Predict the structure.
Amino acid sequence: MKINDVSIVRVSGLYTPPDIPRGDRQAVQLDAYPEFNVGDHRGGREPHTIQALYLEIGTDAGITGIWGPIDGYQTHAILATLRPLLLGRDPLATELLFDLMIRMDRHGRSGYFMTSVSAVDCALWDLKGKAWGQPVYRLLGGPTRDVLPAYASMLSFSIEPSAAAKTAVEYKQMGYLAQKWFFRHGPGDGAVGMEKNLAMAHAVRDAVGPHYRLMFDAFMAWDFPYAREMLRELEAVKLVWMEEPMPPERVGSFAELRRGTRVPIATGEHIYTRWQTKELLVQGAIDYLQNDPDWTGGITELTKVCALASSFDTPVVAHGHSLLPALHVAAAQSPTAVPWVEFLVHHQPHKQNFSTHFTQPVNGHIELPTLTGLGFVLDESKIDSRETL
């Protein structure tokens, strides 16, 4: 079997947002400048047309691997650089193909190019599962569990303290064993912003009780002095982790921050490959890793990250940009190595809009896919137009 086609398909169709109130955005690095520190999510719920891009890798045996939605910036690298390399090669040789892809561009071991490699790798694993008639987690050695616990990721909900507290109780009652909330304020908002962050954190903690698992995310928007002060204040809230208080390449600052607080530290969403991951582990900079298979190097690399992290007794809870690749990897790992998966409550319905199957938690747990490959199938009834790039 050989690869005979690598293409990207743009589809469009109607999307009806879920009946979930939208609230505030998270803090971002550009908030350091007042001109960017404006605006929040207050979107409506009216149906509207959306577009999505899907990568398809075809073979002369008639088996096609698919993954998406991918981002627009990935299309050029996939079509112009990776496609010529892939054509005519064995699609089941995922180790070889991954190694070739990361060697072919001297700037390609991180950033946008690596996210393109990741998309190709996920599509190849989908193809491999279909070729062998198995879900991907079985090819990876699983399952280790029948269902996987998911934590509720609360991006885009209102963070006004009383509203956040009410929502947190609702999602606890739905069966989620953990939740992650997102801070809106950073150094540019001064002491008042810090007070607002802490008011939200305490309100959520008081609402769900002292033993419920809570995490918080700053999306790299803080600097070291601000993060140090925030974490000291957050010790009383008793977090499972504080996520991305700073950009993850500041490994020394992460290590110093971790040494100076009792709050566990998490990052990994914006790091690439096992080599960047190793630096965080060796320096003792983190308590949880969050490499995303959509970006860090696909399923091939995330399995290596899990093995590396287990040797440091550091759990991996993959970032939930998408769900299925992380779900398959988690299903093939020990529960101590990968305890949960992330479910972005507001954003997964949009991500999965064109899928025949909506994968979501029930009572806080996700059943493993039974379809071959990744378990993703485009729903033609939801597609109004299609274009091959």
The chain has a mean pLDDT of 96. The radius of gyration is 21 Å. Residues 111-132 form the longest helix (22 residues). Residues 25 and 40 are 5 Å apart (CA to CA).
